[in-house]
Structures
1.
Amino acid sequence: MTDILQIGLSALLAQQRALAVTSNNVANASTPGYSRQRVELAERPGQQLGNGYQGAGVQVADVRRLGDDILAAQLRSAKTSFQRADAFAGLAGQVDDLLGNDQTGLAPSLQSFSNALQDVAADPASSAARSAYLGEARNLAARLGSLAAQLGQIDGESRSRLGAAATEVTQIGASLADVNRQIVASGSNGAPADLLDQRDKLLGRLAELVKVDTTTAADGSVNVFIGSGQALVVGTAHAELDAVTSPTDPSQPELVLRGGGVDADVTKRLGGGEIGAMLDFRREVLAPTAAAVGRIAVGVAAAVNAGQRRGMDLNGALGADLFSVPAPAVYAATTNAGSGAASAAVTDVGALQPTSYRLRFDGSSYTLTREDSGAVVPLSGSGTAADPFVADGLGIVVGGAPAAGDEFAIDALGGAAGGFRVLISDPGKIAAAAPIKTTPGAGNTGDAVASAGEVVDATDPNLLATTTITFLDPATYSIDGSGAYAYTSGTDILVNGARFSITGNPAAGDRFVLAANTGGVGDNRNALATAAALGGGLLDGGATSMQSAVGQLVGDVGSRSAESQNARDAASGVLDQTRQRLDSVSGVNLDEEAANMLQAQQMYQAAAQMITVADTTFNSLLAALRG
Amino acid sequence: MRVTSDSLRLAFLDALQSAQRRLQTTQTQISTGRRVNVPSDDPFAAARIGELGAALQRIDQYGTNGTLAKNRLSLEEQTLASAADALQRVRELAVEGNNATLGDADRRAIVTELKQRLDGLVSLANTTDSAGRYLFAGYSENAQPFAVGAGGAVAYNGDDGQRLVEIADGRFVAIGDPGSAAFGRIPNGNGTFTLAAAAANTGSGVLGAGTVVDPTAYVAGTYTIAFTAPDTYEVRDGGGALVASGAYTAGQAIAFRGVSVDLSGSPAAGDAFTVAPSTNQDVFTTLSDLIGQLGSPAGTDASRAQLNSAVGQSLSDVDRALEHVVDLRAAIGSRLQALDAASADNGAFSTQMTDTLSALRDVDYPKAISLLTQQLTSLDAAQKSFAQTQGLSLFRYL
């Protein structure tokens, strides 16, 4: 009898447990990170009776947490990839919007500026056309400025997200160390399921921030490594991740891992997740975009300013710069031990590359590397003011006493768009005219004609002086009454920084006068030349025009953005599949729980029935004995 | 594979999200009418769209430039047409003034009209455009190019500048001519040489036309046809060397070194006529000369012969000026033609680019709308299926 009672009781208790576990599963069906649990039943050891064994009922062997460490690690890796792609695509999409927008795009304002210059060329004496041109110049500056400002905002956002991610990594590291401590303290009974769930959740969140690897120690604690194996948590100790300004380049952030009394720069060793996305985005999209926009700004300024300087304004003075762009920025690393200094200037716009550089001194010589590709750029020259290092269109002058290992960051283009300014406010100062003109003598009898002339060297002090070419005979001419030069039709005559040619058959005594273009308000030669320069190949050694540089930029950013969206979609698919696979092990299915509950309930009822049967049987026996 | 309640829900949410994202993309395309709204929609197309847009803007600018050029050139053409009319009238007056039957008083009336014509020509040469800028001043278009000096001489104060405007990629057209070229630099005489009667001539020999009959034999230089007797002449070059000599018969041309000079009347012994290479002369000098010639009294046969010779030469100067204006008008005509050709090319180019741009950028509405319908249907179906599957739970049957 007691057997039946004991067996029934064991069944009641076991099914109660099963119901409790099921209800816990139901309760946590939608709790993030919850792994379902299952009651593992086992037979109680039986006892041998004379003619065989008699079972002794059921017992709860274990309440198992249905987790899968391998799938959990796969899920973390999928989260790292997805978060990297998602955050990257989000930021790239912002740049994408910025450049693709008709209102903020560069192509229309560049063309409007060129068109306004054409209007000046068509009617150079019109102050309305000149004012409109200045207006378009200001629009272009505003457009470049707002692009730079918006890129700056995106730069700020990526930096603050990097900072927040670093802080969160530190917090998660601390929490994981704490969980490790509790797991170790729980000893050999096995870790509580909720602690394991919490640990998986923390690791999952960490994986969204940065690539994570774990190893499990014998005592059940996990060691956590981020990026390419940087120890974040070892047992109960954890390191701290901090985002600081790079000591070598104030425009760049740097991630420092502080642990065990050592501060290590791990910027280049961290990848994946939010942190990887921010770092990759800054390197692959933001920096090249800012440099490409800057290069366009520098190109426009160089073409227009060179044009201005070769021309004459409405007041008869030589033209001055219309635009200003900031000189290349050079930062000496705060860690430099020596007292070396460096400066840079743009020497050839056509050779500029859309990147920044790092200049290193190794104790005897300097090495220049591109920040985007890491490629070494050969330096020509000696680095002195008279003979600067020349590389990629930059002239670099070094001085002072640098120590071996000292570094300089050179950013030639990053600040150009933001610092692009219009210097002229007086429409009369637009140099539409060429500063010189040629006039044939009134009494010329030959049929020779002189070309209008062009400026070769705008800095020649005698550029505006009057020069008279007199033909001594049809084959010889003098300049300002002296010399006797052989005449060949069509060859250039270079005088006082100007160049012109005479073609045809001059007669003896014919004169041509090269003089300042005084009063030449209707002259548009310089405006036409400037417009042609602006529309022609200015970048990449003459291969790329401004408009195609803008097109390239839009195409590059668009490709990056589209690529990152595809990567995000692919990563999202992988993430979903992995999550489903882990869920299929650890997740709760309510129908399944309902069935389990019914089963446990029925078992419970059956066991209760068994108690009743035992009771009835016992009572029957008692009644018989009493009987 | 085991399916869990939460993964069903998450899978649905993901599906819903992506369906709604696709729907949003299609909706944006339909509402903006553009297939490419951000560069990532189609990076290659986005880059091309920007460049095509800029190219279209540039072609519009060529259109603006072309209109301006056309206006300037038409105005110049009209002005030159008026100048040609004036010169034609000058020619008629000169022919009339050269008539032997006219007295000094008749010629004075002609001189009065010629002076008006000269003033008219000067004011034509000082024509301004609608913005008040002088058409024939070269680059110095804010300053009046032609000014009549104290002695009646007309001075040119402009320069030789000629403005070009761009009317198509790399195609330029001149939108004016400097006054120095439009009204000056006209070779006088017959274009090769000029004839003049010596002021001291006493005979009644009158110069007619001079022609180059054999350009290969012509040697440019100054020649003097001197009459040693009324019927004998000799031709000497600038160095005094004898070039030709012969007997003179009235009305018979004198020929030497490839040129032929018509002479009529009766020159006296000692009379001389010179042949000199043409020089450039402006139209105002030609008119002033004519006014001076017709204004001098001619009472004697000799002075009448002087007058006839001089006016005859001035007439050829007027003819040269007329030819010059006709040539210039022809040149302007061909510039206007170039403008029309460029405008037609730009139009064709613009149409073609607009088509390309539209193909790259614009949404294909029937396609987009059918896509939208399809996406709406699938979203609707996903939502319904979720609602139905969510209703399924074993717990409902307990």
2.
Amino acid sequence: MTVNPSGWRPTAPANEQVETQTVTGNRALQLEEPLLFERGRLDQTGVDLPDAKVSGKRLKGLERNRYIGLPGLSEPEMVRHYTRLSRQNYAIDLGLFPLGSCTMKHNPRLNEKVARMPGFADVHPLQPQETVQGALQVISELASWLLALTGMHAVAMSPKAGAHGELCGLLCIRSALEARGDAREVVLVPESAHGTNPATAAFAGYRVESIPANKAGRVDLEALKARLGADVAAVMITNPNTCGLFEPDMIAISEAVHAAGAFVYCDGANFNAIVGRVRPGDLGIDAMHINLHKTFSTPHGGGGPGSGPVVLSEALAPFGPLPFVAKMADGSFKLVAEENADEEHPDAFGRMTAFHGQMGMFTRALAYILSHGADGLRQVAEDAVLNANYVLRSLADVLDAPFAGSGPCMHEAIFSDKGFAEGLSTIDLAKALIDEGFHPMTMYFPLVVHGAMLVEPTETESKAALDQFIAAMRSIAGRAKAGDQSLKAAPIYAPRRRLDETLAARKPVLVYREPEQAQAAE
Amino acid sequence: MRYLPLSDTDRSQMLQAVGAKSIDDLFVDVPKAARLDGLVEGLPLHASELAVERHMSALSKKNMVAGDVPFFLGCGAYRHHVPASVDHIIQRGEFLTSYTPYQPEIAQGTLQMLFEFQTQVARLFGCDIANSSMYDGSTACWEAILMAGRVTRREKAILSSGLHPHYVSVCNTMAKFTGDTLETSVPTLSAETDAEQLIAAIDDQTSAVVVQYPDILGRITDLAPIAEAAHAKGALLIAVVTEPVALGLIKSPGEMGADIVVGEGQSIGVGLQFGGPYVGLFACNEKFVRQMPGRLAGETVDAEGKRGFVLTLSTREQHIRREKATSNICTSSVLCALAFTAHLTLLGEKGLRQLASLNHARACEAADRLAAIPGVEVVNDGFFNEFTVKIPVEARSAAHTMVEKGVLAGVSLGRLYPNAPELESGLVIAVTETVTDEDIDALEAALKEVVR
């Protein structure tokens, strides 16, 4: 007698779907978890603290006398609550995220170990500088690596995420223009750009205009040249672009922009495609943010924290924000901040955040960079590009790939929903992917491709993982083109079916209300 | 290399499958002038985990660790004890390595957690609603000012002199580019805050008054009269809380009339980490919801009628509204929000109150001991866990001297306000539950020495 007479394997689909009700609402390991406010009690706590007598004489009559409404849990209940919640999340530790533009790569655990070394974790940002030389050295070392890899002149380490870095870059540009008495009003942004680009340009006080793409999915150089003029402050380019294609005219673009007296801002979200093989500085850019939580493996954490250091050209370096770390002649490190700005960095545009930046992400990124080294990082880009091309060529016969005919892609491949049967579109393919055990790819971005599906596997996916993804994609694409309307019911195996986002926006419920309160409100 | 699963066999098979002779064929679009034929020069090659750990450990040992010495620094970052289970929860792979919850069906863990976080923040701050985090307190403060500008359609904000100088610096920087006018001033070394001056300064051009609670010198002030004065002129009160543990013991800004309450969540669940990553808290009156920045988790139902959570009201945000977005924020600080919410859940109402009481009691103890030193004056008549002392010598160099005695004694006002000589005798001392009697003894002894 064989142990597995049905021949079922973990990689095969389930044999049958059985609808059963359980008393608890649970399904074996799929455990429903109520809200903290439905579980905890106001008099429950999971921390042992001594009681302290407080005389109110130094509280200026402001002692709190109402309940806050914060239920507590004992430690066993707390651990169970969050562990159950965690199990309703997909994550890189579980499987592939083909998310174009996000670079969801493996998050090494060495990074976590290093970040938690007490000399990094338990150090206050305002300690006297002689007591934090090691921390300052980490920032300086990471900065050196970023400069070497990008071929740029200076780096602002303090921005807290990519969008914050974009703002930093644009404010450097704006300051440089104002310093030469040439304030300009417009920033040009490709239609294919990530939403943070125009949002940031508006935040920085600019009017945004679009640059069209040509049929090959690249920036239309002639159209750009025609638009450049005395009112254009900067052009924001993503390279490789959001269709996963390298901009072959990048040097010509930079030259044209500089000739018109403007600056080139490069969105570095796609640096994973070229790290160690191309230095953006050699392409003539003036500023580029780097997402440490993309290219340099710091964990995404469900939505941050990230880190967005910005490399700057020689022209923009004087305007970089405070504070930054300077290496002194005697080998020690100094934080240059407002108080030494006048002598050392008088043209800084200002400060972007309290304290010095995302130190916890610096230690993680530096551990990753040291682990890979120059040779490893070059291999990262090569494997990332190879993986994406492998996916592209393995799907180009079943899914419309608008640029597949014109050459290789870089680290991500773009498909459209052209050819899907009536009533079915990208979202249906994406939700069906969930049932196959994958996170959907980036959808409906960039806007320049209809029903865009942007797939970025990254270099940390094995060939076997890619083959399984490709098989699932081929199956679902086939169903979509054949008009299999059952796709509209997907996902059916996830902890939740499709959620009503219209209802959520029409009647926003953003905090918990006790049932009596909720009823009264209606 | 340990993070790269592809073998050389895989690579050649895959190159063949894509019709490329070598990997260089896939980089054809890169102009020759920009191609690096070899490795970037001057950089080391890959290293083992052992070697990297050794290198980083050596760097970490060049820092004075807060937990190893008597430690009294605050001013926007506080050392509290974080229970061991919190750090384990944030290292669960399904939280640590998950993505922004744009696909809610497989992100209910993150979304429900954020809904709970939003509820906790709103209640703690005494507001109707809160978002799912900002980068930190300083950027949350600026976003609040921008939001007040959108709501009131005015361009002038008044910042209290008690607002953290880094926060003021961030706001001044951003206002330079948006054209907003900010009225700012430097604090005085006195028990009184600038509440009266603020009230007098509010006019019908004011969009908001921004008040930190407790302030940079640790002083606490009743926000209700300021709120009233602001509302009388059609302006908003923005309260800034850099030490949320305080709200376990003192009234919330929301219940005193603040319209927007922002803050720094670092002191609950998130360690010092030399300044980041931290977590910005943002709460407000629900009538302003469509003007809020940042992501919002909202309740809804799925196709089977089961309760679930989604990111909602996304039409405010960059990926939908692009240049018309309320903010350009994308990635925020969700993992730190998890640390905050997990720690606060462990504390609960009862534990938070106990923790806050303990902090205040320790701070009172320390203040009494230091006040007894001849020449040392405690400036505050009110505080939570942080107060300012005035000493007869320059506080900044005194702080350095005390480092040599192995005591991290506090943050000198000279460090925070290098251009304000009238503040150079001020030293801000934070005392949390992690401070022992021996620590206070050591601080007392060190301070006695430097003021002699």
